[in-house]
Amino acid sequence: MREIKKRLILGLVVLASVMGGGGGGGVAVNPFALWGDAVFVPVYLISTDDETASAVGLAPDWAGYGPRLQFGAYGSDPNEQYGFNLEIHADWWWNEVMNGDGNGTSVNGIALGDNANLWIKPFDFLTLKVGKYNEDPLRGKISPISFPDLVAYDRDANPDWRPGVLFLLSKGEDAIFTRFQANRGAHLALEFGDLYVGASVGDSNKGWAAEDGLLDGWSQIQVGVGYTIENIGFARAQFVGGSDGKQVSGLTTLTPYNRIEVAFALTSLPVGTVDIGAKIPLSYDSDDETTVQAPFSASAGGNLLLGPIDLVARIDADFLGNTKVDGTTTQENGLALVFAAEPSYKIGDSGITVGADVQFKLEGNSKTGDTENKDGKNSLGLGLWVGKAIGAASIRAGVLAGIPAGHNADGDDPRSTRIAIPIQFSFSL
Questions:
Q1: Measured distance between the N- and C-terminal CA atoms of the chain, rounded to whole angstroms
Q2: How many C-beta atoms lie closer than 10 Å to residue 61's C-beta?
Q3: In contact, 282 and 240? CB cutoff 8 Å
Q4: Under 8 Å between Cβ of 423 and 395
Q5: pLDDT tens digits, residue range 365-385?
Protein backbone atom coordinates (compact mmCIF):
# COMPACT_ATOMS: atom_id res chain seq x y z
CA MET A 1 0.00 0.00 0.00
CA ARG A 2 2.90 2.38 0.80
CA GLU A 3 4.34 1.76 -2.67
CA ILE A 4 0.93 2.48 -4.27
CA LYS A 5 0.71 5.78 -2.41
CA LYS A 6 4.22 6.74 -3.56
CA ARG A 7 3.31 6.02 -7.17
CA LEU A 8 0.07 7.99 -6.90
CA ILE A 9 1.85 11.02 -5.41
CA LEU A 10 4.52 10.84 -8.12
CA GLY A 11 1.84 10.66 -10.79
CA LEU A 12 0.03 13.71 -9.41
CA VAL A 13 3.32 15.63 -9.32
CA VAL A 14 3.93 14.78 -12.97
CA LEU A 15 0.41 15.90 -13.88
CA ALA A 16 0.83 19.14 -11.98
CA SER A 17 4.13 19.81 -13.76
CA VAL A 18 2.48 19.79 -17.18
CA MET A 19 -0.67 21.70 -16.34
CA GLY A 20 0.75 24.95 -17.63
CA GLY A 21 1.27 23.47 -21.09
CA GLY A 22 5.03 23.90 -21.01
CA GLY A 23 5.03 26.10 -24.13
CA GLY A 24 6.90 25.09 -27.25
CA GLY A 25 4.44 22.39 -28.23
CA GLY A 26 4.16 20.74 -24.81
CA VAL A 27 1.13 18.87 -23.57
CA ALA A 28 -1.54 20.89 -21.79
CA VAL A 29 -3.85 19.18 -19.33
CA ASN A 30 -7.48 19.87 -20.03
CA PRO A 31 -9.86 20.48 -17.10
CA PHE A 32 -9.96 17.54 -14.75
CA ALA A 33 -13.05 15.38 -14.48
CA LEU A 34 -14.39 13.91 -11.25
CA TRP A 35 -17.16 11.35 -10.90
CA GLY A 36 -18.58 9.58 -7.88
CA ASP A 37 -21.29 7.08 -7.02
CA ALA A 38 -22.44 5.61 -3.72
CA VAL A 39 -25.31 3.39 -2.54
CA PHE A 40 -26.50 2.87 1.00
CA VAL A 41 -29.03 0.12 1.76
CA PRO A 42 -30.63 0.71 5.19
CA VAL A 43 -33.00 -2.25 4.73
CA TYR A 44 -32.27 -5.51 2.94
CA LEU A 45 -34.28 -8.70 3.34
CA ILE A 46 -33.97 -12.11 1.72
CA SER A 47 -36.25 -15.06 2.27
CA THR A 48 -36.00 -18.63 0.96
CA ASP A 49 -37.88 -21.82 1.77
CA ASP A 50 -35.50 -22.47 4.65
CA GLU A 51 -34.68 -19.14 6.29
CA THR A 52 -35.01 -15.37 6.29
CA ALA A 53 -32.13 -12.96 6.77
CA SER A 54 -31.78 -9.20 6.95
CA ALA A 55 -28.85 -6.84 6.63
CA VAL A 56 -27.75 -3.22 6.28
CA GLY A 57 -24.75 -2.04 4.34
CA LEU A 58 -23.29 -0.66 1.15
CA ALA A 59 -24.38 -1.88 -2.24
CA PRO A 60 -22.11 -2.31 -5.24
CA ASP A 61 -21.64 -0.10 -8.23
CA TRP A 62 -20.73 -1.47 -11.67
CA ALA A 63 -17.43 -3.03 -10.66
CA GLY A 64 -16.93 -2.71 -6.92
CA TYR A 65 -18.73 -3.29 -3.65
CA GLY A 66 -18.86 0.22 -2.27
CA PRO A 67 -18.63 3.89 -3.19
CA ARG A 68 -16.53 4.71 -6.23
CA LEU A 69 -14.68 7.94 -6.84
CA GLN A 70 -13.09 8.41 -10.25
CA PHE A 71 -10.62 11.10 -11.23
CA GLY A 72 -9.72 11.84 -14.84
CA ALA A 73 -7.11 14.00 -16.54
CA TYR A 74 -7.00 14.48 -20.29
CA GLY A 75 -4.25 16.34 -22.13
CA SER A 76 -3.17 17.22 -25.63
CA ASP A 77 -0.84 19.54 -27.49
CA PRO A 78 -2.33 22.89 -28.60
CA ASN A 79 -3.14 21.48 -32.05
CA GLU A 80 -4.70 18.29 -30.62
CA GLN A 81 -2.36 16.01 -32.55
CA TYR A 82 -1.16 13.90 -29.59
CA GLY A 83 -2.01 13.51 -25.96
CA PHE A 84 -3.08 11.22 -23.14
CA ASN A 85 -6.10 10.05 -21.15
CA LEU A 86 -5.70 9.01 -17.52
CA GLU A 87 -8.50 7.86 -15.22
CA ILE A 88 -7.98 6.58 -11.68
CA HIS A 89 -10.66 5.25 -9.38
CA ALA A 90 -10.75 4.45 -5.69
CA ASP A 91 -13.24 2.01 -4.21
CA TRP A 92 -13.69 -1.29 -2.44
CA TRP A 93 -13.22 -3.41 -5.50
CA TRP A 94 -13.43 -7.06 -6.43
CA ASN A 95 -10.23 -8.58 -7.75
CA GLU A 96 -10.82 -12.06 -9.19
CA VAL A 97 -7.27 -12.33 -10.52
CA MET A 98 -5.50 -11.71 -7.23
CA ASN A 99 -5.75 -15.24 -5.81
CA GLY A 100 -4.96 -16.98 -9.06
CA ASP A 101 -7.47 -19.73 -8.34
CA GLY A 102 -10.71 -18.15 -9.55
CA ASN A 103 -11.64 -17.01 -6.05
CA GLY A 104 -11.61 -13.25 -5.82
CA THR A 105 -10.74 -11.12 -2.86
CA SER A 106 -12.43 -7.89 -1.83
CA VAL A 107 -9.86 -5.19 -1.11
CA ASN A 108 -9.69 -1.44 -0.73
CA GLY A 109 -7.81 -0.19 -3.73
CA ILE A 110 -6.72 2.53 -6.09
CA ALA A 111 -6.61 1.35 -9.67
CA LEU A 112 -6.74 2.51 -13.26
CA GLY A 113 -10.17 3.48 -14.51
CA ASP A 114 -11.62 2.80 -17.94
CA ASN A 115 -8.91 4.70 -19.79
CA ALA A 116 -5.15 5.05 -19.35
CA ASN A 117 -3.55 5.55 -22.73
CA LEU A 118 -1.46 7.65 -25.07
CA TRP A 119 -2.70 8.70 -28.48
CA ILE A 120 -1.36 10.34 -31.62
CA LYS A 121 -3.09 11.75 -34.68
CA PRO A 122 -0.64 11.92 -37.61
CA PHE A 123 -3.44 12.84 -40.01
CA ASP A 124 -6.81 14.47 -39.42
CA PHE A 125 -8.58 11.25 -40.34
CA LEU A 126 -6.41 8.79 -38.37
CA THR A 127 -5.94 8.25 -34.62
CA LEU A 128 -3.77 5.58 -32.95
CA LYS A 129 -4.33 4.88 -29.26
CA VAL A 130 -2.19 2.53 -27.14
CA GLY A 131 -2.82 1.42 -23.55
CA LYS A 132 -6.04 0.77 -21.68
CA TYR A 133 -9.15 2.05 -23.42
CA ASN A 134 -12.91 1.80 -23.85
CA GLU A 135 -13.95 3.23 -27.20
CA ASP A 136 -17.68 3.68 -27.78
CA PRO A 137 -18.34 5.29 -31.21
CA LEU A 138 -20.02 2.08 -32.43
CA ARG A 139 -21.29 0.70 -29.11
CA GLY A 140 -24.99 0.09 -28.45
CA LYS A 141 -26.90 3.28 -27.69
CA ILE A 142 -29.43 2.03 -25.12
CA SER A 143 -28.20 1.50 -21.59
CA PRO A 144 -29.57 -1.09 -19.17
CA ILE A 145 -32.32 -0.15 -16.73
CA SER A 146 -30.31 2.16 -14.53
CA PHE A 147 -31.52 1.98 -10.92
CA PRO A 148 -31.40 -1.79 -10.36
CA ASP A 149 -28.14 -2.05 -12.31
CA LEU A 150 -26.41 0.45 -10.03
CA VAL A 151 -27.98 -0.80 -6.84
CA ALA A 152 -28.67 -4.48 -7.24
CA TYR A 153 -25.81 -6.25 -8.97
CA ASP A 154 -26.40 -10.00 -8.81
CA ARG A 155 -23.22 -12.00 -9.26
CA ASP A 156 -24.51 -15.43 -10.24
CA ALA A 157 -21.21 -17.03 -9.38
CA ASN A 158 -21.17 -15.84 -5.79
CA PRO A 159 -24.65 -15.22 -4.32
CA ASP A 160 -24.79 -14.60 -0.59
CA TRP A 161 -26.51 -12.44 2.03
CA ARG A 162 -24.55 -9.38 1.02
CA PRO A 163 -26.67 -6.20 0.91
CA GLY A 164 -27.32 -5.11 -2.61
CA VAL A 165 -27.58 -8.54 -4.21
CA LEU A 166 -31.12 -8.34 -5.52
CA PHE A 167 -31.48 -8.85 -9.25
CA LEU A 168 -29.75 -7.81 -12.44
CA LEU A 169 -31.59 -8.93 -15.51
CA SER A 170 -31.31 -6.04 -17.97
CA LYS A 171 -28.30 -6.29 -20.28
CA GLY A 172 -25.89 -3.50 -21.15
CA GLU A 173 -25.00 -1.58 -24.28
CA ASP A 174 -22.58 -4.26 -25.45
CA ALA A 175 -25.46 -6.71 -25.86
CA ILE A 176 -26.60 -4.55 -28.78
CA PHE A 177 -23.15 -3.86 -30.24
CA THR A 178 -19.79 -4.46 -28.56
CA ARG A 179 -17.41 -1.60 -27.80
CA PHE A 180 -13.66 -1.60 -28.51
CA GLN A 181 -12.00 -2.46 -25.23
CA ALA A 182 -8.64 -3.65 -23.91
CA ASN A 183 -6.57 -3.47 -20.75
CA ARG A 184 -3.41 -3.55 -22.88
CA GLY A 185 -3.94 -2.97 -26.54
CA ALA A 186 -3.89 -0.76 -29.60
CA HIS A 187 -6.87 0.95 -31.21
CA LEU A 188 -6.88 2.49 -34.67
CA ALA A 189 -9.67 4.82 -35.85
CA LEU A 190 -10.28 6.17 -39.35
CA GLU A 191 -12.89 8.89 -39.85
CA PHE A 192 -14.04 10.13 -43.24
CA GLY A 193 -17.10 12.31 -42.82
CA ASP A 194 -20.04 10.04 -42.00
CA LEU A 195 -17.88 6.88 -42.21
CA TYR A 196 -16.08 5.50 -39.15
CA VAL A 197 -13.74 2.50 -39.24
CA GLY A 198 -12.17 1.11 -36.09
CA ALA A 199 -9.82 -1.75 -35.28
CA SER A 200 -8.57 -3.05 -31.96
CA VAL A 201 -6.18 -5.76 -30.85
CA GLY A 202 -5.10 -6.48 -27.31
CA ASP A 203 -6.40 -8.16 -24.20
CA SER A 204 -9.09 -7.79 -21.58
CA ASN A 205 -7.81 -10.07 -18.84
CA LYS A 206 -4.39 -11.63 -18.35
CA GLY A 207 -2.18 -9.66 -20.72
CA TRP A 208 -1.44 -10.05 -24.40
CA ALA A 209 0.85 -13.00 -23.87
CA ALA A 210 3.68 -13.49 -26.34
CA GLU A 211 3.40 -17.25 -25.99
CA ASP A 212 -0.02 -17.08 -27.64
CA GLY A 213 1.87 -16.64 -30.88
CA LEU A 214 1.60 -14.10 -33.66
CA LEU A 215 -1.35 -15.70 -35.45
CA ASP A 216 -3.27 -16.38 -32.22
CA GLY A 217 -2.85 -12.77 -31.19
CA TRP A 218 -3.94 -11.24 -34.49
CA SER A 219 -6.78 -13.77 -34.90
CA GLN A 220 -8.51 -11.98 -32.05
CA ILE A 221 -8.66 -8.63 -33.82
CA GLN A 222 -11.87 -6.63 -33.70
CA VAL A 223 -12.73 -4.62 -36.81
CA GLY A 224 -15.88 -2.51 -37.06
CA VAL A 225 -17.43 0.02 -39.38
CA GLY A 226 -20.19 2.55 -38.83
CA TYR A 227 -21.97 4.84 -41.27
CA THR A 228 -24.29 7.73 -40.42
CA ILE A 229 -27.24 7.96 -42.81
CA GLU A 230 -28.31 11.58 -42.67
CA ASN A 231 -31.74 12.15 -41.12
CA ILE A 232 -32.25 8.40 -40.70
CA GLY A 233 -29.83 6.60 -38.43
CA PHE A 234 -26.50 4.89 -37.76
CA ALA A 235 -25.62 1.49 -39.30
CA ARG A 236 -22.81 -0.69 -37.90
CA ALA A 237 -21.18 -4.03 -38.58
CA GLN A 238 -18.11 -5.71 -37.15
CA PHE A 239 -16.05 -8.86 -36.80
CA VAL A 240 -14.89 -9.86 -33.32
CA GLY A 241 -12.18 -12.50 -33.39
CA GLY A 242 -12.10 -15.37 -30.96
CA SER A 243 -9.54 -18.03 -30.20
CA ASP A 244 -10.92 -20.87 -32.35
CA GLY A 245 -11.40 -23.03 -29.28
CA LYS A 246 -7.88 -22.46 -27.93
CA GLN A 247 -8.99 -20.32 -24.95
CA VAL A 248 -6.05 -17.95 -25.28
CA SER A 249 -6.18 -14.35 -24.07
CA GLY A 250 -9.14 -12.56 -25.59
CA LEU A 251 -9.91 -9.14 -26.97
CA THR A 252 -13.13 -7.85 -25.47
CA THR A 253 -14.28 -11.22 -24.13
CA LEU A 254 -12.55 -14.55 -23.71
CA THR A 255 -14.86 -16.29 -26.17
CA PRO A 256 -13.43 -19.30 -28.01
CA TYR A 257 -15.35 -18.42 -31.18
CA ASN A 258 -15.43 -15.72 -33.86
CA ARG A 259 -18.59 -13.70 -34.26
CA ILE A 260 -20.20 -11.17 -36.55
CA GLU A 261 -22.30 -8.30 -35.20
CA VAL A 262 -24.71 -5.95 -36.94
CA ALA A 263 -26.79 -3.10 -35.56
CA PHE A 264 -28.87 -0.13 -36.61
CA ALA A 265 -29.81 2.88 -34.51
CA LEU A 266 -32.84 4.83 -35.67
CA THR A 267 -31.98 8.39 -34.67
CA SER A 268 -34.49 10.31 -36.79
CA LEU A 269 -37.36 9.92 -34.33
CA PRO A 270 -38.34 13.30 -32.84
CA VAL A 271 -38.82 11.70 -29.42
CA GLY A 272 -35.62 9.67 -29.04
CA THR A 273 -33.55 6.72 -30.28
CA VAL A 274 -34.24 3.05 -31.00
CA ASP A 275 -31.30 0.66 -31.40
CA ILE A 276 -31.43 -2.94 -32.66
CA GLY A 277 -28.54 -5.39 -32.85
CA ALA A 278 -27.73 -9.04 -33.48
CA LYS A 279 -24.71 -11.27 -32.84
CA ILE A 280 -23.91 -14.27 -35.04
CA PRO A 281 -21.33 -16.58 -33.45
CA LEU A 282 -19.46 -18.92 -35.76
CA SER A 283 -19.29 -22.56 -34.72
CA TYR A 284 -15.97 -24.02 -33.63
CA ASP A 285 -14.50 -27.46 -32.90
CA SER A 286 -13.63 -27.97 -29.24
CA ASP A 287 -11.98 -31.28 -30.14
CA ASP A 288 -11.78 -33.68 -33.09
CA GLU A 289 -15.35 -34.91 -32.57
CA THR A 290 -17.22 -32.01 -30.95
CA THR A 291 -18.60 -28.91 -32.68
CA VAL A 292 -19.99 -26.08 -30.54
CA GLN A 293 -22.48 -23.50 -31.74
CA ALA A 294 -22.71 -20.69 -29.18
CA PRO A 295 -26.17 -19.09 -28.86
CA PHE A 296 -27.21 -16.43 -31.33
CA SER A 297 -28.43 -13.22 -29.72
CA ALA A 298 -30.67 -10.31 -30.62
CA SER A 299 -31.30 -7.11 -28.67
CA ALA A 300 -33.53 -4.11 -29.13
CA GLY A 301 -34.01 -1.05 -26.99
CA GLY A 302 -35.38 2.45 -27.00
CA ASN A 303 -35.05 5.67 -25.05
CA LEU A 304 -38.06 7.87 -25.72
CA LEU A 305 -38.84 11.28 -24.23
CA LEU A 306 -42.56 12.08 -24.37
CA GLY A 307 -42.91 15.47 -22.71
CA PRO A 308 -42.34 14.93 -18.97
CA ILE A 309 -42.34 11.14 -19.46
CA ASP A 310 -39.06 9.35 -20.13
CA LEU A 311 -39.26 5.68 -21.15
CA VAL A 312 -36.32 3.29 -21.40
CA ALA A 313 -37.17 -0.24 -22.56
CA ARG A 314 -35.19 -3.27 -23.71
CA ILE A 315 -35.68 -6.82 -24.87
CA ASP A 316 -32.77 -9.26 -25.19
CA ALA A 317 -32.79 -12.86 -26.40
CA ASP A 318 -30.28 -15.73 -26.68
CA PHE A 319 -31.25 -18.78 -28.73
CA LEU A 320 -30.20 -21.76 -30.91
CA GLY A 321 -27.05 -22.71 -29.04
CA ASN A 322 -26.09 -26.38 -29.36
CA THR A 323 -23.32 -28.96 -29.21
CA LYS A 324 -22.81 -31.74 -31.76
CA VAL A 325 -20.66 -34.87 -31.54
CA ASP A 326 -19.89 -36.52 -34.88
CA GLY A 327 -22.71 -34.48 -36.42
CA THR A 328 -25.36 -35.57 -33.91
CA THR A 329 -26.85 -32.95 -31.59
CA THR A 330 -26.15 -33.89 -27.99
CA GLN A 331 -27.04 -30.65 -26.21
CA GLU A 332 -29.42 -27.79 -26.99
CA ASN A 333 -29.58 -24.57 -25.00
CA GLY A 334 -32.94 -23.21 -23.93
CA LEU A 335 -34.24 -19.83 -25.01
CA ALA A 336 -33.24 -16.97 -22.70
CA LEU A 337 -35.45 -13.89 -22.95
CA VAL A 338 -35.18 -10.69 -20.88
CA PHE A 339 -37.63 -7.78 -20.87
CA ALA A 340 -36.94 -4.59 -18.94
CA ALA A 341 -38.63 -1.19 -18.82
CA GLU A 342 -38.26 1.97 -16.76
CA PRO A 343 -40.88 4.72 -17.19
CA SER A 344 -40.29 7.91 -15.24
CA TYR A 345 -42.10 11.23 -14.85
CA LYS A 346 -40.46 14.60 -14.25
CA ILE A 347 -42.49 16.88 -11.97
CA GLY A 348 -42.32 20.36 -13.47
CA ASP A 349 -39.21 22.41 -12.66
CA SER A 350 -38.81 20.95 -9.19
CA GLY A 351 -35.99 18.64 -10.26
CA ILE A 352 -37.98 15.71 -8.81
CA THR A 353 -38.61 12.58 -10.85
CA VAL A 354 -40.65 9.52 -9.95
CA GLY A 355 -40.20 6.22 -11.71
CA ALA A 356 -40.82 2.50 -11.80
CA ASP A 357 -38.79 -0.50 -12.93
CA VAL A 358 -39.91 -3.88 -14.18
CA GLN A 359 -37.61 -6.69 -15.28
CA PHE A 360 -38.52 -10.22 -16.28
CA LYS A 361 -36.27 -13.06 -17.39
CA LEU A 362 -37.47 -16.31 -18.91
CA GLU A 363 -35.01 -19.18 -19.30
CA GLY A 364 -36.35 -22.15 -21.21
CA ASN A 365 -35.45 -25.78 -20.59
CA SER A 366 -32.37 -27.19 -22.29
CA LYS A 367 -32.22 -30.61 -23.95
CA THR A 368 -29.70 -33.41 -23.68
CA GLY A 369 -30.18 -35.61 -26.70
CA ASP A 370 -33.95 -36.19 -26.91
CA THR A 371 -34.48 -35.54 -23.18
CA GLU A 372 -35.80 -32.19 -22.06
CA ASN A 373 -34.13 -31.00 -18.85
CA LYS A 374 -36.14 -29.26 -16.14
CA ASP A 375 -33.64 -26.44 -15.71
CA GLY A 376 -35.67 -23.45 -16.93
CA LYS A 377 -35.90 -20.47 -14.58
CA ASN A 378 -38.08 -17.37 -14.41
CA SER A 379 -37.01 -14.24 -12.53
CA LEU A 380 -39.00 -11.08 -11.78
CA GLY A 381 -37.86 -7.71 -10.49
CA LEU A 382 -39.99 -4.67 -9.60
CA GLY A 383 -39.12 -1.26 -8.24
CA LEU A 384 -40.52 2.16 -7.37
CA TRP A 385 -38.30 5.18 -6.78
CA VAL A 386 -38.15 8.95 -6.45
CA GLY A 387 -35.16 11.06 -7.43
CA LYS A 388 -34.01 14.66 -7.31
CA ALA A 389 -31.45 16.54 -9.37
CA ILE A 390 -29.11 18.81 -7.39
CA GLY A 391 -26.95 20.67 -9.87
CA ALA A 392 -24.51 18.15 -11.35
CA ALA A 393 -25.57 15.58 -8.75
CA SER A 394 -28.63 13.41 -8.26
CA ILE A 395 -30.07 11.29 -5.48
CA ARG A 396 -32.62 8.47 -5.65
CA ALA A 397 -34.36 6.33 -3.08
CA GLY A 398 -36.85 3.55 -3.60
CA VAL A 399 -38.05 0.06 -2.94
CA LEU A 400 -36.84 -2.84 -5.05
CA ALA A 401 -38.23 -6.37 -4.91
CA GLY A 402 -37.02 -9.43 -6.74
CA ILE A 403 -38.00 -13.07 -7.08
CA PRO A 404 -34.83 -14.36 -8.72
CA ALA A 405 -34.10 -17.93 -9.64
CA GLY A 406 -32.02 -19.66 -7.00
CA HIS A 407 -28.41 -20.70 -7.37
CA ASN A 408 -28.26 -23.85 -5.27
CA ALA A 409 -25.27 -26.11 -5.93
CA ASP A 410 -27.33 -29.13 -4.81
CA GLY A 411 -29.55 -28.73 -7.85
CA ASP A 412 -32.70 -28.09 -5.80
CA ASP A 413 -32.62 -24.50 -7.04
CA PRO A 414 -35.01 -22.94 -4.51
CA ARG A 415 -36.37 -19.52 -5.31
CA SER A 416 -35.80 -16.57 -3.03
CA THR A 417 -37.62 -13.29 -2.45
CA ARG A 418 -35.49 -10.22 -1.92
CA ILE A 419 -36.51 -6.72 -0.88
CA ALA A 420 -34.22 -3.70 -0.56
CA ILE A 421 -34.63 0.00 0.20
CA PRO A 422 -31.59 1.62 -1.43
CA ILE A 423 -30.45 5.24 -1.41
CA GLN A 424 -28.18 6.02 -4.33
CA PHE A 425 -26.48 9.30 -5.24
CA SER A 426 -23.91 10.31 -7.84
CA PHE A 427 -22.23 13.40 -9.21
CA SER A 428 -19.91 14.46 -12.01
CA LEU A 429 -17.72 17.56 -12.18
A1: 28
A2: 25
A3: no
A4: yes
A5: 888 988 888 777 788 888 899
Name the residue among 283, 203, 279, 288 with its Cα closest to residue 248: 203
pLDDT in tens, 108-155: 678 888 899 999 999 999 999 999 999 999 999 998 876 655 444 444
pTM for this entry: 0.84
Nearest to 281 by CA among 321, 252, 248, 316: 321
Q: Residue 249: which of 271, 227, 277, 218 has the closest Cα?
A: 218
Residue 329, judged by CB atoms within 10 A of its CB (0-12, 13-18, 19+), counts as middle
Question: How far is it, in rounded angstroms, from Cα 315 to Cα 274?
Answer: 12
Answer for the pair 268, 233: CB distance below 8 angstroms, yes or no: yes
What residues form DSSP beta bridges with 301?
A: 275, 314
CA distance 235 to 69: 35
Beta strands across the sheet bearing 322-325: 284-285, 290-293, 322-325, 328-332, 367-368, 371-372
